[in-house]
Structure formats: C-alpha cells, structure tokens
Amino acid sequence: MSETEADEGRAETAGGPPGPGPARRPRIAAAIAAAVLFAAVAAVLALTTPWNPLPGRVPGGHAKADPSLDFTSAEIARSRAFDSAVNPPAYTGLAVGLVLILILGLTPLGSRFIGWVTTRPHRRWLRIIVATVALTTLLRLAGLPFDIWSESVLRRYGLSTQSWPAWLVDQLKSLGVTWVIYTIALLLLYALIRRFPRYWWTGAAAGGFVLVVLVSFIYPVAVEPVFNKFHSLERGPLRSELMAMAQRDGVPVEDVLVADASRRTTSLNAYVSGFGSTRRIVLYDTLLKSPRPRIESIVAHELGHAKRDDVLWGTLVGALGIAGALCLLYLLMTSPRLLRRAGVDPGGADPGGADPDGAGTAGRGGGAADPRSIALLLALVTAGTTLAAPVQNVVSRRIEARADAHALNLTRDPATFVSMQHELSVRNISDLNPDAMEYLLWLTHPSGPDRIAMARDWARMHHVQAPPPLH
Ligand SMILES: [Zn+2]
C-alpha cells in the first residue's frame, strides 16, 4: 500500500460524502472492479452453460414432461401431499431467516446485540470471533423450529432414519463448520479492513477468490468426513463394471466411494465433489440395493460431471462471484448512510468497545472496521446469496441435464435411465410438478418427469426404442 494510504483513509473516515479528488478514487476503482468481475461471471456462465443440453433435432418434436405417463396416481398424490407438508417450513424458515438478518443488519439492533455480547473480551480479534459465533448461532436458533418441523415431515414420510439426538448432533456439527469458515473469513477480512482502510477490497477480492477455491478443493477431505463415513466400493462385478465404464468414457477415476448415508436417510443419491487430487465419485449406500444397470446409469451421470469438470467450473464462477461481491461489499460497507442505519459510527468511534490506545476500537478503516458492523455484513452477504440462488439454479439445471445426456450417450440405455429416474423420484418423494417459485428457489435439478421426457427425446434422436410409459 502507498504511504498516502493513512491520510486518504482519514479523509474518508471523517464521514460525510466523499468529495471529488483522491478520496473518491478507491470507490470508483472498486466499482469498476466489481463490474469487471461480474461481467466475467456472466461471460463464463454464458459460454460454459449448456443452454441446449441435448443438441439436435428431435424427430416428431420434444416429449412433454407428464407425470401421469410414468407415475401411478398414488405416487402422484403422495408427492403432492409431501410437497404441501414440506413447503410451509421451507418457505417460512427462509423468510424468517432473511427478515431476521435484515432487521439485525439494517437497523441498530444487530450492532447493539454485538456490543452486548462483546463487552467483556477486549481484544479486537476476540470480539470478532465472539460476534461471528454469536450471530451465526442466533440465526441458526431462529431457523431451528423450522428445521425441526421439516425433519418431522421427513420422519413422517419415512425419509429420515435418524434419531432426534443424532439429528441434533448433525445440526451442531453443521453449526461448527459454519463457525470455523465464517470466523476465519471474517478475521482475515477485518484485519484487511483495518490495515488497508481504502483498498481492503483488493485483498479481500483476491483472498475471497483463493478461499472459495481452497474450500471447494479440501471440502471432500475436510468437511464431508465430519458428517459421513466413506469406504471404497467393494471389489466385485459392480465395481469392475463401473471402473470399466469410466475407462470407456475416458474419465480417470481412481476409486468409487460409498457414503454411509443410510444412517440419516432412505433417499437415493450420488455426487461428484472436489477437483484435481480430491475429486471423487460418491454413491449413497442406499443406492447399492438398486439393480446394477440402474446404478450404472447414475454413475454415468456423475461421470458426465467429472468429464466436463463441472465442479471446477462451478468453483471458478463462485470464486469470481465472491471476488466481485467483495468489491461491492466495500462500496456498501463504507457508505456512511448504511453504516449509520446499522448503528455503526461511520467515523469508526466505538463507544461500546474498551480500547487501550483510546483511538476507538475501529480506528483505522472507519466504521467498516468496527466488529459491530458484522451484522450489516452478514445481512448484505445473505441478501447477495439469496439473490444469486435463482441464477445458480437455472445454470445448475442445465448442467444436470447435460450430465443426463452424457449418461444416455454412454449407456445408450434410455429404458434403464427412465426406470432409475422413476425410482429416484419415488424413493426421494420428489416434486413431480414443481411450480415456478419452486423452480426459482429450490430446484437444482430438472424434475423427474423433465428428465424422463429428455430420455425419450434422446431415444427418438438416436433411433433407439423410446421407453414406453411405466404406468
Ligand atoms: Zn448431477
């Protein structure tokens, strides 16, 4: 940083609108950086998203998704009943969490709450840790009744196999993971804000980028084992067949792992996580009871993700998005109006904090450096992630459809694909007829009937017998 950093920092932390001249420079630069990074996200998404996952003309036109073709009326009724049972806790939980953090972040309540929980620890880093842990815990507690409600619905429908104590342990573990990730991120961020009051967004954007890549890379070995035990798929015909299929596909796979998902759920799933040396294909142990060709159909889908490096591209987009968001965050967190609204003195004076050197605990970096601004920060982060979710879902559904097309190309067996999708939908009690809001907010995958319709399209395009209705 330049030597004029401190002086410029003072000029800005004096509050009031930044005047023309050098004080505005970092804001303009941050705005340009945010615009460039978001443009890069848009460009990568536009260029790498398979907007047409099944290219080519379908003889006779596209098949329409129609649950009544393949699902019995009892299955459809059960899916509907489950949907109307899980929606209320899902929507109210989302709304309550959002409203709570927005109230805490955009009114003085959040900074007062942080002031209240951090009156004792005098050290700045300790106040950041306490504030982060307290706020994330408060938010989790507010969501807990809705999570219990959801879990009791899963239990009623036989999807959950957990005891309540085991479920609670899961919640605590997940809260622990949140504490670790948020605490590390916020300690680094607030150290940067204090050290470089006017250009912290450069370091934050670079650090955020690196942190997203790092977390995505170590997630399979650092976080997943907190929740599940993994073992290699046992030697035998299934393993040999899957490894041979991967080889045929030209995807180097060293191992197929099995997760002990049955300790928690009866639902079926498989996934790819990590990249490079941490990349793995994981099957839920619940899946292993399915007929072998169906498991192959699922693994062929996962190979599609591996072959296209979907995790790596997703990580890159996430990292660029976070970097852009941190530049935007700088613009918002240094806005005197927003800070005042959040009950934080834009000049950085911190009446609630004990401070041996008497310069205010925030001191350099202005109000943004005050740990009481963490509520505002979390509110902005939550608003950002909520707004980004529908975009992520639209892109994710296309990527999932491409992995389906890959599975069909690899297995050339649309009939088994359809029977597997049917089994997935029935076992997981998936929504067979999602409405627009559900597509927008929740659906990372096309619905079962969407996926089945695409398999029929694929069959007609490749002159393979189209799978007849299952029902
Ligand atoms: Zn997938």
Biggest sheet strand line-up: 1-2-4-3
Helical region count?
17
Which structural class best describes the helix and strand composition?
mainly alpha
Average residue pLDDT: 91
SSE sequence, one letter per element? HHHHHHHHHEHEEEHHHHHHH
Rg from alpha-carbon coordinates: 25 Å
Let me know the largest β-sheet: 4 strands, mixed
Distance separating the two termini: 68 Å
Shape: globular
Give me the count of strands. Answer: 4
What percentage of the residues does DSSP assign to strands (E)? under 5%
Low-pLDDT stretches are: 1-20, 350-362
The percentage helix is 55-70%
The ligands bound in this entry are: zinc ion
Domain module count: 2
Can you describe what's shown?
The chain has helices at 5-13, 25-48, 67-70, 73-106, 108-117, 124-156, 164-195, 200-222, 224-227, 237-249, 292-307, 310-333, 336-341, 374-411, 414-427, 436-441, 448-461; strands spanning 230-232, 256-259, 270-273, 280-284. The protein is mainly α and 471 residues long. The chain has two domains: 24-231 and 300-461, no CATH class; 232-283 and 285-295, 2-Layer Sandwich (Zincin-like), CATH 3.30.2010. A four-stranded mixed sheet has the order 1-2-4-3. Strand 3 (270-273) and strand 4 (280-284) form a beta hairpin. Mean pLDDT is 91; it is low at 1-20 and 350-362. Residues 98-229 form the CAAX prenyl protease 1 N-terminal domain. Residues 1-24, 344-366 are annotated as: Disordered. Keywords: Hydrolase, Membrane, Metal-binding, Metalloprotease, Protease, Transmembrane, Transmembrane helix, Zinc.
